[in-house]
Amino acid sequence: MDRFRVDLIAATPNPQQCVYAAMHQDYCEGFVAEDRDSWPDETQAGEICVKRLLAGERGHFGPLEHAQIVLNVGWFPHSVMQQARTHRVGVSFDVQSMRYTGERICRAADGELDLEDIVYLRPVGKYSDRRGKKYSYTQDQRDLDLDHCRKAAERYRDLLRSGFAEEHARGILPFDYRQHFVVSFSLRAFLHFMDLRAKLDAQLEIRQLCDLMWPHLVDWAPQFAAWYEKSRLHRARLAP
User: Fold this and answer.
1) DSSP state, residue 199
2) Domain boundaries, the chain
3) Residue 83 in this model has a pLDDT that exceeds 80
4) What angle, rounded to 10 degrees, do the helices at 204-220 and 187-197 form?
């Protein structure tokens, strides 16, 4: 999991003022952009929006859709992408296809890349299944799984070199090959995604994704993040 990474690509520079303007226009007689000089600053705008839109479980999340953030997510297993795209999250993804991006698999098969740069296995440790049954994942078991992944990468390489199409050869790969993706959220969608995937019984890897996303929210929209951490984080209150 030490390879997991989330980097900021772009974001609305004044997200809390943006939400404030949208909220303000709902009940303002005038054209709010003409009064930009009278808007509260970014911190005050966030505080006002939290108080008027969200505090006391008002749940008026619509204005939060106008602020946008784009993140680059790297080295996560395919299963995280499968989970991230499940449910109606209102998020846009662009993901490595494994039709055009399999060269790294061949390089790992040839020993030019660390095998764990292209496949993911959980760390050795103690785990439980969805029904609470506990089990151990030992180093010996993990070594067997790594050997299986190595053989799959070598078979993938050999299939490509013998003329097979990428979309055919990829079927031999372990499910949890690593993928990079770009994802964009509105502020509302970001919070909803955290509701779905940061809950304490969510799967380990997608919780790690949420943990790496979280500092970007704190830096970007700190007043909203503070409210969310106090009111909703890890509580699985769905669909804002």
Assistant:
1) S
2) 5-72+180-231, 99-176
3) yes
4) 150
At 238, the pLDDT band (50, 70, 90 cuts) reads low
Pick the CATH number of 5-72+180-231 from 3.40.50.720, 3.40.50.300, 3.30.1360.170, 3.40.1190.10: 3.30.1360.170
Name beta bridge partners: 15. Answer: none
Q: Is 16 exposed, middle or buried (0-12, 13-18, 19+ CB in 10 A)?
A: buried
Q: How high does pLDDT run on average in the chain? A: 94
Q: What does the chain come to in residues?
A: 240
Closest CA to 240 of 56, 36, 232: 232
Q: Which residues are CB-contacts of 211 (< 8 A; sequence separation ≥ 6)? A: 198
- Residue 212 parent element (H or E): helix 204-220
- The token duo for 61 is 């999340």
Contacts of residue 148, defined as CB under 8 A and 6 or more positions apart, other chains included, come to 174
Q: Are 3 and 178 in contact (CB under 8 A)?
A: yes
Q: Which residues contact 64 (CB under 8 A, 6 or more apart)?
A: 19, 53, 186, 187, 188, 191, 224, 240
This prediction has a pTM of 0.94
Q: Quick one: CA dihedral 62, 52, 199, 209, positive or negative?
A: positive
| Residue-wise burial string across 173-183, b where 16 or more C-beta atoms lie within 10 A, e elsewhere | bbebbbbebeb
